[in-house]
Structures are given as structure tokens and as C-alpha cells.
Specification:
Blueprint: H1 12-35, E1 50-51, E2 57-58, E3 71-75, E4 77-78, E5 85-86, E6 91-95, E7 101-106, E8 112-116, H2 121-124, E9 128-133, E10 142-144, E11 151-155, E12 162-164, E13 168-170, H3 178-210, H4 217-232, E14 239-240, E15 243-244, H5 246-275, H6 280-302, E16 318-320, E17 323-325, H7 327-349, H8 351-361, H9 363-368, H10 373-399, H11 405-420, H12 425-441, H13 451-465
Parallel strand pairs: 3-12
Antiparallel strand pairs: 1-2, 3-8, 4-5, 6-7, 6-9, 9-11, 10-13, 14-15, 16-17
């Protein structure tokens, strides 16, 4: 139970400064994204609708239908072209759990394939299907960007159509060495791990100051993505001169809204529970219920389909020797590093940061020293939820998202936080880097479907050797 803190003269402007720093970092990252030459014109790209810059239509949405069936749909584009061109006449097949082929299709002139599954929607719920692409039907010189991704397994949890994609590009696999492939995967892993680090840092800050193991943290991630998507879907565009800043506005609004949502979480739920002396186990159970409740609301409001933002979904990559990296990935990497460094330095150098560390070390002693513990925890919730919301927006920019975005990566967020050391800022970042890069590079040796398992094995091994985590401090018990 936390001691009731004594009230001192309010220093609320420190909280505002912390939020302003986060929002300013968002603005810098968004400006970098919008300023990239490859992204000068807004491009709407998704599995259901995309138009390339040359004016030729790709991924044209299939005609609406009125039947009770589930379709496997997707779009194939040749990334060797500038802009990417549709890939027609590629053969796609679908097999059920027994290995029986239940549907076949061919991509049309816009690159779209649409395969109906047999039976009614309700008959297929809960079943798994494997979608295969015939590599021999691809254009000459083209190949799958990931040679191992010849098939994709999908499990139907909802009665809506399922969208899949097979990235197609240069046929370089015969001449690509293992080190080069590992380096390319590490680049993708770095981007993923930095986004994971933002979410993990927010979780670590909240745990450090309150002791709460928050299973609803994944829904804070999804909340940011949904808010940005709502802004992105508003009629018209936000422009400054000839520059489309819709994504920039969505980022800023999502950051502020996520911080406010975090404050409401603490003020309306967690603070009353703390003051009543509710145990941490009971609060953890409450967080599980809150997670389920919020996820159900998200599904009701946003539906079960995958969403894409209107800008920067498929920019043309730069070639740095044998490595491909997109301007979007560069901008997201720089932005993420800036945000993480600013937050960590604020925790170490500012009065509010020192107060936060004092509360994390000893709540009762911090309260007796005149620190307003409730105010510090409120600020931590604002910053932690803001970081989670920002990571959700950036995850959506890199890979699209649905209402379960945060839930899907929550286990990795916990793994990164525990691996680095619970309650430590640098530990959460280091743990995320280890987890994110490892799971991507491991696909050289294990199927992509099992890459998360390898990360959890690493977590178990490290904790057996060093239970306090990589950067955590060992403590005596008893």
C-alpha cells in the first residue's frame, strides 16, 4: 500500500513541459517523414485500394457482393518498378487444415486476387487455411522478397474477408549470402525494436512507480493507432502550402489524446484503487478485465479488418549496397531515437524525472520528503500512455493495424521490459533491441511463424542466468 503523500506547492508546469517535449518530438519526426523526397505526394496504398504515381491503377478493390462467404484477398505488386507495378497472372491456391485444396485464383491486371472459401462464414470460423503462391507464375526476374514466405497461414476469427500479401521484388536470393540476408533482416528488426522500445519504456515507467503489471497496456498502443486513423479518415486533407501534413496532424493528436487517456486511466481507476489499499495482484486482474473491455470496444468501433493510413505505406526503398531501406524506415528510426533519448534524459536530469525515480525507489520515503506522489504518478501515466500511443501510430505506418494491434505485441513488450530489468528506463530499451533484432534475424533459421518463440526462449535463458534482467539491480529478499 502506498503512503498518502503530503500536498506541497503545485508544480504542474513540469508536467506540461514533459508532455510538450513529447509532442515536439512527434512534430520533428513527422516533418522528417513528410519532407522525404519519396513521400512528397500522398499515396493511398492498401490491399483494397491503391493508385500509383504514374496514374496506372493497382490493387483496385473487388466489386461489392452480397453473400455469406469469406474470401481470401490480396494484391501483388512488383517492387522493382518505380512506382511499383501490378503483378497479373500469378497463381494463388488455398488449402484447408487437412492439406486439401479448397480454392484457386489468379491475380488480375491490377494485381488483385480474390478467392472464395467454400461454405458459409459461420462454417469456417475458427478454422485455419494456408495460402500458397506459385513462384513459377511470377514475372521473369522477380521473386519473393522473403524466399521462405511461399505460404501464409491464416486462422479465421471473424466473419470478414482476410487480406494477405506476398512482397515481390528482385530475384537476388541465389547470390545473397547469409551475412547479407542477416544484415537486411537486422535493419528491419532495428525499426521494429525501436517501436517496441517506446511501448516498453511506457510500461516500465508505470510499473516502476506503481508496481502495477498492466495487461491493458496493449490497448493504450491500439488507442493511439485508432485516434490517428480517425484523424486520417476525416474528409479532406490537412495541408501547409503544397505539403500534405495529414499524418503529422494525426501523430500530434494521437500523442496528446493518448496522454489524456492515460491520465483518465489513472485518475478514474488506478488512483482510487491505490488509495483503498488494493493489492497488486488484484489490480493486475482488474487490468486484464480492462484490456478485454477496451478491446471489445475497439472492435465495435473500428471493425475487425486491417486498416492502413493514407500516406507513406509503400515508399520506394533506397539501395545502400546490398541493403534496402525505405525513407519511411529512416524517418521512423530517427524519430524513435529522438523520443527515447529525450524521455530518458528527462528522467535523469529534470526535477520531475528525479522525483519519478524517487517514487520508484521508495514511495513512502518520497512522500515523507514532500514529493506529491499522486501528481508524479499522473505525469508518468501521461508520458507512458503517450509513448504507447506513439508506438501504435508508427506500428500502423509500418505494417497496418487492426483492433488487436497492442494485444498481439503485448507479450513482446513484457518480454523486453523483463529482459532489460523491470522498472529501469535503459533496461526497457536494451531489452526491446535484443528482442526485436533477434526475432527478425532468427527467421534465417526458423520459420517466420515461430520467430516469437525464439525471443521468449532467449528471455528464459537470460533470466535463468541473471534473474534481475540485463540492467536490473539484484536485491536481497528476506
Amino acid at each position: 500500500m502506498h503512503a498518502r503523500p503530503r500536498t506541497i506547492r503545485a508544480r504542474s508546469r513540469l508536467a506540461l513541459r514533459a508532455l510538450a517535449v513529447t509532442v515536439a518530438a512527434v512534430a520533428v519526426g513527422a516533418l522528417m517523414t513528410t519532407g522525404s523526397p519519396a513521400n512528397a505526394a500522398p499515396v493511398a496504398q492498401s490491399a483494397s485500394q491503391a493508385v500509383n504515381q504514374a496514374g496506372a491503377q493497382t490493387c483496385v478493390k473487388p466489386a461489392p457482393r452480397d453473400d455469406d462467404t469469406i474470401h481470401i484477398q490480396g494484391c501483388l505488386r512488383d517492387l522493382r518498378e518505380k512506382p511499383p507495378a501490378p503483378v497479373p497472372d500469378a497463381k494463388i491456391s488455398v488449402k484447408d487444415e487437412s492439406g486439401k485444396e479448397v480454392g484457386t485464383g489468379t491475380s488480375n491486371e491490377t494485381g488483385v486476387f480474390d478467392i472464395a472459401l467454400p461454405g458459409k462464414s459461420i462454417d469456417n470460423l475458427g478454422k485455419s487455411f494456408t495460402v500458397n503462391i506459385d513462384k513459377k507464375s511470377l514475372p521473369e526476374g522477380a521473386a519473393l522478397r522473403n524466399p521462405k514466405q511461399v505460404s501464409l497461414k491464416v486462422t479465421l476469427q471473424l466473419d470478414s474477408d482476410v487480406y494477405v500479401t506476398f512482397p515481390i521484388g528482385e530475384d537476388t536470393s541465389p547470390d545473397t549470402s547469409i551475412p547479407v540476408q542477416a544484415l537486411q533482416l537486422a535493419v528491419g528488426g532495428l525499426v521494429f525494436s525501436l517501436l517496441l522500445a517506446m511501448a516498453s519504456l511506457g510500461l516500465s515507467m508505470i510499473f516502476g512507480t506503481t508496481g502495477l503489471t498492466n495487461f491493458a497496456h496493449g490497448e493504450l498502443i491500439t488507442f493511439g493507432a485508432l485516434v490517428a486513423y480517425a484523424v486520417d479518415r476525416l474528409p479532406g486533407e490537412f495541408r501547409v502550402g503544397d505539403v500534405n501534413i495529414t499524418v503529422f496532424v494525426a501523430l500530434v493528436v494521437a500523442a496528446i489524446a493518448s496522454g489524456v487517456f492515460g491520465w483518465f486511466n489513472d485518475r478514474g481507476l488506478w488512483r482510487p484503487l491505490r488509495h483503498r489499499g488494493t493489492g497488486l495482484i488484484a489490480m493486475m486482474v482488474v487490468s486484464i478485465g480492462l484490456s478485454i473491455f477496451l478491446r471489445s470496444l475497439y472492435q465495435y468501433w473500428a471493425g475487425g479488418s486491417t486498416h492502413q493510413y493514407s500516406q507513406f505505406s509503400s515508399p520506394q526503398p533506397y539501395e545502400l549496397g546490398p541493403i534496402l531501406i525505405t525513407p519511411k524506415d529512416i524517418a521512423i528510426t530517427i524519430f524513435s531515437v529522438v523520443v527515447l533519448v529525450i524521455v530518458v534524459l528527462a528522467l535523469q536530469r529534470t526535477k520531475l524525472g528525479k522525483a519519478t525515480r524517487a517514487v520508484a525507489d521508495n514511495t513512502a520515503l518520497a512522500a515523507s520528503s514532500g514529493i506529491n506522489v499522486d501528481r508524479v504518478i499522473s505525469v508518468v501515466w501521461i508520458v507512458g500512455a503517450g509513448l504507447a500511443g506513439l508506438s501504435g501510430v508508427l506500428f500502423g505506418l509500418t505494417q497496418g493495424f487492426d483492433y488487436q494491434l497492442g494485444f498481439k505485441i503485448l507479450l513482446l513488450v513484457f518480454a523486453a521490459t523483463v529482459l532489460g530489468g523491470l522498472g529501469t528506463a535503459w533496461g526497457a530499451i536494451v531489452g526491446a533491441l535484443v528482442i526485436g533484432i533477434f526475432i527478425e534475424v532468427s527467421t534465417l533459421f526458423v520459420p517466420a511463424e515461430l520467430k516469437f518463440v525464439g525471443a521468449l526462449v532467449v528471455l528464459i535463458v537470460v533470466l535463468l542466468i541473471r534473474p534481475q534482467g540485463l540492467l536490473g539491480k539484484s536485491q536481497r529478499v528476506g
